[in-house]
Amino acid sequence: MKQFYSLLVFTLLVSCQEISKHRPSENNFGAKKSPKELNNLKVRISNPEKTEINYEFVLKLGVQVGSQELECVGTLISKEYIVTSASCFKYHGIDASPNDVKVYTENKGTRGEFIVENIIIHSKFNITNFRNNIALVKLAETNVIIIDNYIKIYNKPLRDMEFFEIAGYGVDSNNYNRPNYELKSFYALVHPYKNCSDKNVYKNMICYTVYLGKGACYGDMGGPAIIEDEGIPSVAGISSHFFTHGERKACSAEGDFGYFTNLAKYIKWIKRMTGLDQNEFAIID
């Protein structure tokens, strides 16, 4: 396994210099495309690998906003709360209600559907530039299925070229109509906001460059960027949007950029919205 990771990191580093020459054009998906164009494409992780670890804390979200059905991913950070992207619950000025949201788990031994009690969207979320793209989904106490294996938020400074695992439930081909029920993931080198190649990047974002054709796409939004801290997995970000340097409908071409909401920047907000103690959902230095 160590030899595999060494080879992968070496390959990524060799490719980095060449790919960095391709700066993206004004094609920031979600910001530049219309909502109709964006949401007509199913969410997917492109060219992923099936995860060997059974991540019970990664859940599927199905959202009905008006006449539009959206697919997203959520991350369980406590017994009751899921953190995901605010963009999953808005379409053409319409907000989804709790009754419009279905939360599923496809993990072995815990397959089923959760009842949603409430959706909390960040009050300063901007659908145009994806600033503050974060929301919380509160699960009802009446749920029969209970998952105790939730994950804490990574609350430490991020280094450039940090190695993350990005997980989701999207389809893994250009066939957007074929559903996927297996959790899949890929590895990426993630950068703090100051090293991201996009004028619309803010301090609450982190990013990665697509290498070897692996990246998140429409519908994997809200999925976690997982980092291991002393052998323990934690979630550093949630998938927000992506930026392409080409004119195409496909995702994850070499040199594209993916962006995440940096969860460490929202520790106080989550604490205020949930009433949880910080040590219940975040790693404390």
Automatic annotation (TrEMBL):
GO terms for biological process: proteolysis. Residues 1-16 form the signal peptide. PROSITE patterns: PROKAR_LIPOPROTEIN, TRYPSIN_DOM. Residues 44-275 form the Peptidase S1 domain. SUPFAM superfamilies: Trypsin-like serine proteases (SSF50494). Keywords: Hydrolase, Protease, Signal. This is Serine proteases 1/2. It comes from Smittium culicis.
